[in-house]
Amino acid sequence: MLSNVLMKTLRDQSRLLLAWALSLALIVATYAAIWPSVKSQPSMSDFIDQMPEAFRSLFATSSADMSTPTGYIQVELLSFMGPIAVLIYAINAGAGAIGGEEDRHTMDLLLSNPVGRGRVVVDKFLAMALGTFLLAAVMGFSLVLEGNLADMVLPPDKVAGAMLHLALLGVVFGSLALALSAATGRTGLSRGIPAVLAVLAYIINALAPLVDAFDRIQEASPFFQYIGQDPLRKGVAWDSVLVSALTIAVLLALAVPGFRRRDVVG
């Protein structure tokens, strides 16, 4: 009996999660290997300062000093590549949670077991969230351990805070993908809408200092909750964590009745 949907989903995703974890560790290792050559080039910070303000806002989350490990990782990893990797995993996991079962024609088999639809949605959510937090943890451990090997020393507590914010960013958009998947069963739609909204949220947060309309709604952007209070420098911003957690709870609360209302085929 497939009574434990969470454990089955985690087993099904184990190889994929391992591949993602190894890839993230290698990405961090690449940045760590490049660091010794970057720190000796103060012109890198000057180059960023000379960029047009709009480009600087889009590709650097702060006026970071690239000659420091924190500034380097802030610009090179946490501004762009890190969020992209986590969002791709979380959105795909959320979209495939329900829609993927229907695409594979395994949903009837799953629902024929003694599990309610609400339990299916919650367990699928937990699997997506655990996978996302695992990948953020791998990135954080890699930053500390591999960074130390390359003399790129980062404070572990600040790294942990930044990874908490990064994981919550992924789970917010993964939960949106799950809610859409539960309500529609369409994996393409469930991937596409969160991906577009993630890009819009990124742009709103990045360009808020330059665009008045964006400035008024910046704090509603999940990217503001992720990076707006600079957790890699200042540690966990608990108000942002609370906003992200409430957003996730609302999306999960919408996903359960959305799935219950549907006439599922396959």
Detailed description of the structure:
By secondary structure, this protein is an all-alpha fold. It has one domain. It has 13 helices and no strands. The protein is globular, with a radius of gyration of 20 Å. The mean pLDDT is 87.
Summarize this structure briefly:
The protein is mostly helical and 266 residues long. It has helices spanning 5-39, 43-50, 53-59, 69-78, 81-103, 107-111, 117-149, 156-184, 187-207, 212-217, 222-227, 231-234, 238-260.
Feature tags:
266 residues, mainly alpha
What fraction of the residues are assigned to beta strands by DSSP?
Answer: under 5%
Structural class determined from secondary elements: mainly alpha
Question: Radius of gyration, rounded?
Answer: 20 Å
Determine the number of helices (DSSP H or I, runs of at least 4 residues): 13
The total of beta strands comes to: 0
For the largest beta-sheet, the strand count, sense and barrel status come to:
none
Broad shape? globular
Q: Based on the structure, what is the oligomeric state of the protein chains?
A: single chain
Helicity, as a percent range: over 70%
What's the end-to-end separation, in Å? 18 Å
* Secondary-structure element string: HHHHHHHHHHHHH
Can you tell me the residue ranges where pLDDT is under 50 for at least 5 consecutive residues?
none
Count of domain modules: 1
Provide the residue-averaged pLDDT.
Answer: 87
